[in-house]
Amino acid sequence: MRGFPQVDYRRDPRLPVSAPAVLAASDGRWDVIAEDFAAGGCRVVSPVPLRLGTAAYLTLQLPSGAGHVAATATVAWNTAAPPWRIGFAFARSGGEERARQVRTLLDANPRLGRRPLPLRPSARLRLGAPPDPCPVFTRDERVVLRAARDALAVRELFGRHAVRAVELRRALQGLMLHGWVQTGAARATDRRWSAVLAETLSTGGARATRDRPADGAGYRPLRGRRAQAFVDLARAESAEGHDASAVEWLQAALAASPEDPFILAALDALTVGHARG
User: Fold this and answer.
1) Angle 139-149/193-200 helices, nearest 10 degrees?
2) How many domains does the chain have?
3) 82-111, pLDDT tens digit by residue?
4) Residue 12 lies in a domain
5) In the chain, which residue ranges form alpha helices assigned H by DSSP?
6) pTM given for the model
7) 54 and 104 in a common domain
8) 152-177 as b/e: b if 16+ CB within 10 A
9) Is residue 92 part of a domain?
10) Is 215 contained in some domain?
11) Burial 4-33 (b: 16+ CB within 10 A, else e)
């Protein structure tokens, strides 16, 4: 991933909403999905990579009656391998209207405004209170439930499934929001989980990822998928205001990809920059 924006989560909260969107950039036009939204920007899953600073035009159809967004934007950060995730910074024009749309989304679903807890690499997962009634869990949620049942560390979960680290992070945050998965010291599991897990985990989950170098635009021969996943997780933690957690993820990434110049620079930006400020 290139670009490591410093984001003030309190000033510009990013809401974890999924919105169909159209991306126009570099003489191309694509139907895409925005994975989050804020007055100042959004994150998009793109079928093609785009360079930092690339100008773009985005249109989004927000859920919950929040309306339509049409904005010029620039690429603020991007991932170095597919799936191409791109962070866009909106132009200032239209910012007041987008802030109103953020408030509309929060009014419709106050849970969106809850600041996610930091996900530290060393934290250990555990099962919380079981759901009643039991929902239909997604593939990624089933992977997280297995990890919580087995009391894996967060780092181990994302290291095993590095290719889907961003999706698993979103699934983990959703399960934690409901209290179904927690972090902390191991404790006795509620007996009601037995029936839930017997049904839920009978379906296969995502396969563990073999750690090999990522390919595609921005290919770095010394950075494997595990290190790249940890860098992506560091960016996500920093974007939510959890810089201490972001530093820990960058340290884990550096352990997986020693002397990586980007990781070293990102660590310097988060540690030295904050010390000066």
Assistant:
1) 140
2) 3
3) 778 899 999 999 999 999 999 999 999 887
4) no
5) 95-108, 139-149, 154-160, 165-178, 193-200, 225-239, 243-256, 261-276
6) 0.65
7) yes
8) bbbbbbbbbbbbbbbbbbbbbbbbbe
9) yes
10) no
11) beebeeeebbbbbbebebebebeeeeeebe
